[in-house]
Amino acid sequence: MRGQDHSGLKRFRSPLAGALLGGMLVFVCGAIYAQNAPQVVPRVTGAASPMGDVPAPPVARPIVDDKRLMRNYPEQPPIIPHSIENYQLTLKTNRCLDCHRRQFTEGSGAPMISVTHFMDRNGQVLADVTPRRYFCTACHVQQTDAQPLVPSTFKDMLLVDPAKK
Amino acid sequence: MQRLKQLLIWFWRIASRPSAHLSLGFLALGGFVCGVLFWGAFNTALEVTNTEKFCTSCHEMRNNVFEELQHTPHFTNRSGVRASCPDCHVPHQWTDKIARKMQASKEVWGKIFGTIDTRKKFQDHRLELAKHEWARLKANDSLECRNCHSAVAMDFTKQTRRAAEIHGKFLVTGDKTCIDCHKGIAHELPDMTGIEPGWRAPPEMRDRQTFRDNPRDELARYLAATGSER
Q1: What is the rounded average pLDDT of the residues B143-148?
Q2: Which segment of A58-67, B43-52, B115-124 scores lowest on mean pLDDT?
Q3: By residue range, what is the domain housing residue B175?
């Protein structure tokens, strides 16, 4: 029998003692874990229970002042300073390009899509917007009056080290 | 043919003789009452075909255009005013309405023969159908838009600067009509390849023709122009 081979564990064969010891082990481990448990970072959705009913915040209003804002960093896709609600942006039609396409900018007064939008992935410049840049809202977003969900510590690179300026 | 002729002659013989049994008053009053009944029934039927419920009773409308309408401000908006199908697609004036209804009998043909009875078929015909509607609204100066939206009642200061500017430039001057720019506001647009934005002047009226159809002609024109200068 196995009991004969491991005589030291013999007393744990009593079910009560085994349960007791197991319970203590779980309690101790739990207590230790609770002390050093990793802090879960609150999600951007807030502390609400993921399955709970949460009232939706009011929809942010688009900023429509048509003012071209400075970019926070050179590579930032410019934000859209007008409403794009219900703009159709499909394979069939692109409402943005109705004004921002090169041949239409003269009449519309809208800024032309930049020349990078004419380059394909090999740097070859095409006559019209390249397919990979066709879906404007993949990069450009509409500016709204929504407040940031989490604070941002981003600093403009020009302001990081004034000594260098 | 011969029998038809005989039938017509028989009818005319009865219709052209004075009545032998019925009094003049009965005929006159009866005619009047029948007329009223006919007219009431006709108009009621006409109005029934002029409802959203009637339009969306066909799956062609329900599954395509009505489905798309529901995401737009003409279906749901902050003030709760809704435009239904006939508000935009059927003139409100009686004579125009009858004319449009007669035109629309073609749609019955389309329904019977299933011209657009699948989504694919509908998409294939979409540009053509849209063009008909654009042409209709262009021809009547966007009458159905103007049944609700009038340029006179527009407060340009409440519009964004850009909208006010454009409306001042095109709408007030009568240069363009609503549908020229506001295409696809209540339904999805067809494939718009080659269809220029509505605010553009027609090619013959542009100061500078940037894009010509044929580069060869363009070159010939250029050479001719420079040749004449010499």
Answers
A1: 92
A2: A58-67
A3: 150-181
Domain-embedded: residue B54: yes
On whether residue B142 sits in a domain, the answer given is yes
Rounded to a whole number of angstroms, the distance from the CA of B72 to the nearest CA of chain A is 7
Number of CB pairs < 8 Å for A and B?
44
A84, A92, A97: best to mutate for the B interface, most B CBs within 10 A: A92
Non-local CB neighbours of B198 within 8 Å, separated by 6+ positions? B176, B179, B180, B181, B182, B183
| B39 and B118 fall within a common domain | yes
Question: Can you spell out the DSSP letters for B64-105?
Answer: IIIHHHTTSTTTS-TT-----HHHHHS-SSHHHHHHHHHHTH
- Whether residue B90 is found in the same domain as residue B154: no
Average pLDDT per block of 10 residues along chain A, 165 residues long: 49 66 76 66 67 83 88 91 90 92 86 93 92 94 87 84 62
Contact A103 B210 (CB under 8 A): yes
Measure Cα distances from A117 to A94, A113, A123, A139 in Å. 14, 7, 10, 12
**A92, B191: Cβ pair inside 8 Å?**
yes
Q: What is the pLDDT of residues A145-157, one digit of tens each?
A: 988 878 888 888 8
Whole-angstrom Cα distance, residue B124 to residue B112? Answer: 18
